[in-house]
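User: Is it possible to get a 3D structure for a protein together with its bound compound? The compound here is manganese (II) ion. I've pasted both below.
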Amino acid sequence: MVIIMQEGATEEEVAHVLARLGEVGATGHVSTGDRVTVIGAIGDREEMTALPLEACPGVDRVVAILKPYKLVSREFHPADTVIDVRGVKVGGGHVALIAGPCSIENEEQLMTAARAVRQSGGSMLRGGAFKPRSSPYSFQGLGVEGLRLMAAAREETGLPIVTELMDPRDLEPVLEYADVIQIGARNMQNFQLLSECGKVDKPILLKRGLSATIEEWLMAAEYIVKEGNRRVILCERGIRTFETATRNTFDVSAVPVVKLASHLPVLVDPSHATGRPELVLPLSLAGIVAGADGVLVETHPNPEHALSDGAQSLSTAAFAEYAARVHELVAWVGKRVS
Ligand code: PEP
Ligand code: MN
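Assistant: Yes, that's possible. Here is the predicted structure of the complex:
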């Protein structure tokens, strides 16, 4: 349930409500807005309903939320969450243009891609060091060596870096280097991994699972936020359907559906959604028009020789043209590229 405090409610009044919730073993997560404070309460529904919270001083009203997720819901936090990554904002009118190779392969490949992203006005650099590959015989990523190359690319370009974490055992090195930790589609319901991500002080980019409903995706985000980390960025990356013309089916409707249901920023990843470089621009534009807070795309200096996802990557030359079109559209919708 969500407890909405009156305008001007005091800290003592908020503390009192939290104490009353504590009496029935429930926990309250406080969200302080410009005007009102909202408390998201998690605990036994019956016991919480029995508490006379509306009679507590400073309480305006108590709203029962029927949806299974609470902390990521708009009811709990009506304003858009804006996530700051080393000064680069995502959400609330700031559109992130995140690009880079699928996998970090070597210094030259990564630096060429990173410079292209920087020169074209990109916001952050992506690149995988730990790769979730469908085949155990495919390139699995450079691991920690890849993270070091990413840090060097950040050093030169100033771009914050986004990289995937697949296993809680790799949390330490990933935490040491990454600015944003990506949780891939295949791990969206790896609940232990999600809970670990909830305990860290780094933004988490949570991709939608290959066959996850929007509700399951938001519940996965709830796992992270419940542990205390409120900085979650969602990413629609296509879902499995009967269609074979594209690698996955880009669910553009997920963007406004999620934005109505949740305060978290939402990105689109048309590279994995379609598997086809010629579709990356039109679907990035569609995502931005639908309200996306950013795009995550793959670019490689030489897609033909890429060790993973070359077939869907934009060449770095094509990326410059792509980025220019994204900048134009973002301005046209009245937002700015962060
Ligand atoms: C990736 O971003 O390279 C990736 C593996 O994405 P996904 O988890 O969406 O398949
Ligand atoms: Mn990829």
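The mean pLDDT is 96. Residues 102, 128, 132, 184-186, 207, 237, 272 surround phosphoenolpyruvate (ligand 1) (CB under 6 Å).
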